[in-house]
Inverse folding.
């Protein structure tokens, strides 16, 4: 898997996801936010939509991609990140779950995903398709 180091715009994307916690926080439920960057440089962010019944919860990445639908056909997604705010001390970058990997590659197969590399103990970017090498297709 090819990895890429983060650039200034990637750190700005992480900050955008982190700031989502300040904008929308209720019931202390919304512990994951995401942000994506379009090719134009525009940033769109969103929060997990949690529910009392956990099976109804929708992850942050599909929410954020849904908010970007008006743009992505003419201005594709180039990078996406998710951060968790369950800890009291800091916001942490987290990898997308399996469902979100499917979702991201449906709408942005050429996009990068920012993740934390345990091997390198640093943040890196990888292609969305590298996180889902044997994607389901109809």
């Amino acid at each position: 898997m090819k990895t890429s180091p983060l650039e200034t715009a990637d750190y700005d994307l992480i900050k955008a996801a982190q700031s989502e916690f300040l904008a929308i926080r209720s019931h202390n439920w919304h512990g994951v936010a995401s942000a994506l960057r379009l090719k134009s440089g525009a940033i769109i962010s969103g929060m997990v939509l949690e529910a009392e019944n956990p099976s109804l919860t929708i992850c942050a990445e599909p929410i954020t991609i849904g908010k970007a639908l008006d743009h992505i056909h003419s201005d594709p997604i180039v990078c996406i990140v998710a951060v968790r705010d369950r800890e009291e001390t800091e916001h942490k970058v987290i990898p997308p779950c399996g469902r979100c990997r499917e979702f991201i590659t449906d709408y942005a197969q050429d996009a990068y995903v920012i993740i934390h590399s345990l091997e390198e103990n640093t943040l890196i970017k990888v292609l969305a398709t590298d996180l889902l090498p044997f994607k389901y297709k109809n």
Q: What stands out?
A: Strands lie at 3-4, 32-38, 43-47, 77-84, 92-94, 112-117, 122-127. DSSP finds three helices and seven strands in the chain.
